[in-house]
Amino acid sequence: METKRIKQILSSSSDVEVQYNGTSVWIDKLHEDDKTVTVHLRGIPLEERTEVDISDLNEV
């Protein structure tokens, strides 16, 4: 996924499905390096957050 698209998703009020390793996740934050994001699993609000490379994300 591209940095520009992640910024659009974060600023959008629409529900955009994004997957990490085939699992649906919410993007919480784009990091300053523009190469990593913090995500957590959808449907589990207290789930641990994980930092991942944006190249590992796919928009469904």
UniProtKB/TrEMBL annotation:
Keyword Oxidoreductase: no
UniProt subcellular location: Spore core
InterPro entries documented for this protein: SASP_SspH
Keywords: Sporulation
GO cellular component assignments: endospore-forming forespore
Record keyword Plastid present: no
Chief place of localization: other
Superkingdom of the organism of origin: Bacteria
GO biological process: asexual sporulation; sporulation resulting in formation of a cellular spore
Membrane-crossing residue ranges in chain numbering: none
Protein family per UniProt: Belongs to the SspH family.
Protein name (Swiss-Prot/TrEMBL): H-type small acid-soluble spore protein
Source organism per UniProt: Cytobacillus kochii
